[in-house]
Amino acid sequence: MTEPGSEDLTVEDAAEPAKYRVYADTPLDEVVDLMVRRGLRAIPVVGERYEVLGIITTGDALGRVLREAPSEEGEAAGAGAPTARDIMTRAVLCVSEAQPLVDAARMMVNRKVEQLPVVRDGELVGLVTRNAVLRALHGETHDERDDPNET
Question: To which H or E segment does residue 50 belong?
Answer without folding.
Answer: none
